[in-house]
From TrEMBL:
Protein name: Predicted arabinose efflux permease, MFS family
GO MF annotation terms: transmembrane transporter activity
Pfam families, alphabetized: MFS_1 (PF07690)
Keywords: Cell membrane, Membrane, Transmembrane, Transmembrane helix
Cellular localisation: Cell membrane
Species this protein is from: Microbacterium saccharophilum
Major place of residence: membrane
Residue ranges of domain Major facilitator superfamily (MFS) profile in the record: 189-424
Length: 424
């Protein structure tokens, strides 16, 4: 076996992340792209529902297209990514996403945009996002020392939530000023800026020589065996997968639910998203305190209980139209708060316990399971919304979400305070 090829120099070990220019460069790029993504998260549903008059089936198809790549290429993507420089993969993915998004306003300006164009762009964006997200969740250990991984994840998640606060408000303003199709151009620009920041970032990743790579199928099998051979990872996958399945049904129909069923405006929809981001930001800030009080292991089932129960408030808004808007603000804040607490805790554990050479496959295997259910759920949302109506479908999704916490509630987490570390 030959020695791995060493990459560019890593940041100085144990340096404070606030003084680590390398991490700050990568962080700033992600902050910009997260901000842009929040604008598009608001602009695309407005474009589909209000300008193209999308049906429930159209919305389901669009949602499925955006996440189909996790089911179709999620597993091999992890094996491929483990053979490549993850930072380089992220750069290419950012450029592809920028080009794909830029096609939408051009088609609208030419008077040619149809829903199938949006579906096609969603498919391309989805493939690029698979490679970006798996690399993103795998690259942190090569950027910061091991004892700073949780801090780095917290900072990255905090920034994502801050972007979620400002992004919807900016998106609502941009939609009003330059219309939804052209608002997505802002996101395309932020993806290019993110790629530029990643070009200036350095990492310490070790890439194995090409002739040392295992066959693709064997590499995929090793990643799956690592995930499902660990009782803690296995139960986390169960909770996250079931939660994602039912929350995808909810969020696929959410634009129709808010804009048509409840009669809210795009601006109010943006406020709901922004308040959710405030909850996520607060969750990211207080996660270290909660971990010190509850312990890492118990925080996972506790947060899962909260976000599975809070999901019931969303369809309940139909029953109390007079207070629907404030009720949705509360639901959005508490739901995102608890989800961020859960995600920061379990992602940090995954990164800490997994050997570096398996990080890409570990994250891809988990993403295949927990995001691969999303296109199926999105198509089901379109079918159920057409057959039963949107409010009834939202109740079904909320009831199903209650089952998601069972995997971690009934597991070994309550009997422990801290989760295992490598070598335990």
């Amino acid at each position: 076996m030959s020695q791995p090829v060493e990459s560019e120099a890593a940041p100085t070990p144990h340096r404070s992340l606030w003084r680590d220019g390398n991490f700050l460069t990568m962080w700033s790029g992600q902050a910009l792209s997260q901000f842009g993504a929040q604008i598009t998260e608001l602009a695309l549903p407005v474009l589909a529902v209000l300008l193209l008059q999308a049906t429930e089936f159209d919305v389901g198809l669009l949602g499925a297209a955006g996440t189909a790549a996790f089911l179709l290429v999620g597993l091999p993507a992890g094996a491929w990514i483990d053979r490549l420089r993850k930072r380089h993969v992220m750069i290419v993915a950012d450029v592809i996403r920028a080009v794909a998004l830029a096609a939408l306003p051009l088609l609208w300006w030419a008077g040619l945009l149809q829903i199938w164009h949006m579906v096609l762009v969603a498919l391309v964006m989805g493939v690029a996002t698979v490679f970006f997200d798996v690399s993103y969740q795998s690259v942190v250990p090569s950027l910061v020392p091991a004892d700073h991984i949780a801090e780095a994840n917290g900072k990255l998640e905090s920034t994502a939530q801050l972007a979620g606060i400002a992004g919807p408000a900016a998106g609502g303003w941009l939609i009003g000023v330059i219309t939804a199709p052209f608002a997505v151009l802002v996101t395309a620009v932020t993806y290019l800026l993110s790629a530029g920041a990643l070009l200036r970032t350095r990492d310490s990743e070790l890439v194995a020589a090409r002739h040392d790579h295992d066959p693709l199928v064997a590499s995929i099998r090793e990643g799956l065996r690592w995930v499902f051979g660990n009782v803690h990872l296995r139960r986390i996958v169960g909770t996250t997968g079931v939660s994602n399945f039912f929350s995808t049904i909810t969020f696929t129909l959410l634009p129709i639910f808010l804009l048509r069923t409840l009669g809210l405006s795009p601006a109010q929809m943006g406020v709901i998203f922004a308040v959710g981001a405030v909850g996520g930001f607060v969750g990211a800030l207080v996660t270290p305190r909660i971990l010190r009080r509850l312990g890492e292991a118990r925080t996972i089932p506790a947060s899962a209980i909260v976000f599975s129960l809070i999901a019931l408030l969303l369809p309940a808004a139909v029953a109390v139209p007079a207070i629907a808007f404030p009720l949705l603000l509360v639901q959005s804040f508490l739901g995102t708060f608890s989800v961020l607490l859960y995600n920061i805790t379990q992602v940090t554990f995954r990164q800490r316990i997994t050997p570096p050479r398996l990080l890409g496959r570990m994250n891809a295997s988990i993403r295949f399971c927990v995001w691969g259910v999303m296109p199926i759920a999105a198509l089901l949302a379109g079918a159920l919304g057409t057959w039963l109506g949107v409010p009834t479908t939202m109740w079904i999704a909320a009831a199903g979400a209650l089952a998601s916490a069972l995997f971690v509630i009934t597991g070994p987490f309550w009997r422990m305070r801290e989760l295992p570390t490598p070598g335990d």
